[in-house]
């Protein structure tokens, strides 16, 4: 697979008009998490879909209630948009002022081109605007490369381990998430 040259990339909040992009977003999310391409895959650790088209449609329709969904788009020379990444801001009810970054994905063909960093920075900026003061990220504990990437972005390991939400999807039993946090200053 030859690398795809990246044209103009931007990140924005989804709107109801973005329902037309949900099939592509669904493909990006599941390729990033469940395919053999890219360095962020969990294919050997977790089975099943990471997100459904119906779940994405619900997030777009209910934008900001309570979650906030953002897409990264590539624009080609004709001005056509194509989803190449996603990120979701999820308020933590039990911890006012904190929100979790979830549904973070970059199309494997576009990874290692700075798009993930753009998505995370856009999410962090949006979190600040929304009044959050701490960003939270949960990462599967044995994902050393991914954890190092988050540490470079300023996230700190809290030492908290959380059981995997859907243990029946695990291919490797008894994996947990490590909780990372980053103050939004």
Poorly predicted spans:
none
Overall mean pLDDT score? 88
- CATH architecture annotation of the domain at 8-133: 3-Layer(aba) Sandwich
CATH class of the domain at 8-133: Alpha Beta
Count of individual helical segments: 4
Please tell me what the overall shape is.
globular
GO molecular function: N-acetyltransferase activity
Domain N-acetyltransferase: 43-176
InterPro entries: Acyl_CoA_acyltransferase, GNAT_dom, NAT_camello-type
Keywords: Transferase
Note down, in words, how this protein is organized:
- With 185 residues, the protein is of the alpha+beta class.
- It has a domain at 8-133: Gcn5-related N-acetyltransferase (GNAT) (Aminopeptidase, 3-Layer(aba) Sandwich).
- It is 25% helix and 31% strand.
- A seven-stranded mixed β-sheet has the order 1-2-3-4-5-7-6.
Annotation keywords:
7 strands, seven-stranded mixed β-sheet, Aminopeptidase, Acyl_CoA_acyltransferase, NAT_camello-type, alpha+beta, 25% helix, transferase, 185 residues, GNAT_dom, 4 helices
């Amino acid at each position: 697979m030859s690398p795809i040259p990246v044209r103009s990339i931007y990140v924005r909040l989804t709107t109801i008009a973005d329902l037309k992009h949900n099939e592509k977003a669904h493909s990006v999310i599941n390729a990033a998490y469940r395919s053999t391409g890219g360095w962020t895959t969990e294919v050997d650790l977790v089975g099943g879909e990471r997100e459904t088209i119906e779940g994405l449609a619900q997030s777009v329709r209910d934008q900001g209630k309570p979650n906030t969904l953002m897409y990264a788009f590539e624009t080609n020379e004709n001005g056509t948009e194509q989803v190449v990444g996603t990120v979701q801001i999820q308020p933590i009810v039990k911890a006012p002022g904190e929100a979790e970054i979830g549904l973070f994905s970059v199309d494997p063909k576009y990874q290692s081109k700075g798009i993930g960093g753009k998505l995370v920075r856009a999410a962090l900026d949006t979190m600040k605007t929304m009044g959050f003061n701490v960003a939270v990220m949960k990462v599967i504990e044995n994902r050393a490369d991914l954890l190092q990437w988050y540490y470079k972005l300023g996230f700190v390991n809290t030492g908290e381990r959380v059981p995997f939400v859907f243990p029946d999807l695990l291919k490797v039993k008894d994996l947990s998430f490590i909780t990372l946090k980053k103050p939004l200053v």
